[in-house]
Amino acid sequence: MKKYIRIWEIDFLRGIAILLMVFFHLIYDLNVFFKLPVVYQEGIVYYTGKVAASLFITIAGLSCYLSSNNLKRGLVLIGLGLMITLVTFIAVPGSNIVFGILHFLGVSILAYRFFRNLTAWKLLALGTFIIVAGPYVSGVNMPNNFLVPLGLFENNFSSSDYYPLIPWFGLFLYGMALFKLKYREKKSLFNFDLSNNLIALSGRHALLIYLVHQPVILGILYLFFS
Known about the structure:
Largest sheet: none
Number of strands: 0
Number of domains: 1
Shape: globular
Distance between the termini: 51 Å
Mean pLDDT: 95
Radius of gyration: 18 Å
Helix content: 55-70%
């Protein structure tokens, strides 16, 4: 039995998300680590990062229906997220990651089983409610950071990569709804195949690229500026 069913446009979109993410982190690194006057907190660079994350999250929701082992996938992502948290606390304490995209995806994939039988319209309605609730939740000042995964935190909380369940789980539910509306047959929507290109290939290896791209970018930049 195949562990994961591949649909070329899903890999392609994930590959586009990878390219956008690499671009965002390049600008981020130039600003944070090399103090160059480039801006990543607003404008096109900021939204490039958010589009990349939105693609990853929506595709992850859809892809849960294509995988036969979501428990393993979720636990692996949480484990990798915790490793990144540890490494960033030690190596770059000023830019540590507390509940980043890997933590979020891992928890969301584990939660998938509780929502998988909802209709597409219920998933869309619930997803919209969670997204709309986001600004209200983040505006609550908490006495501690125990509920950081939900989007509730103290005023002094910081994380250089932060994707709380509220509002981002709403997009994950949108991805689940998209499967039910368009991909129930688990095959491409198109009568042509663009799976044999670098973008789709990078999408098939998105996790590996995510894990290595920052050390590679920083290494190249250090060599360039040294």
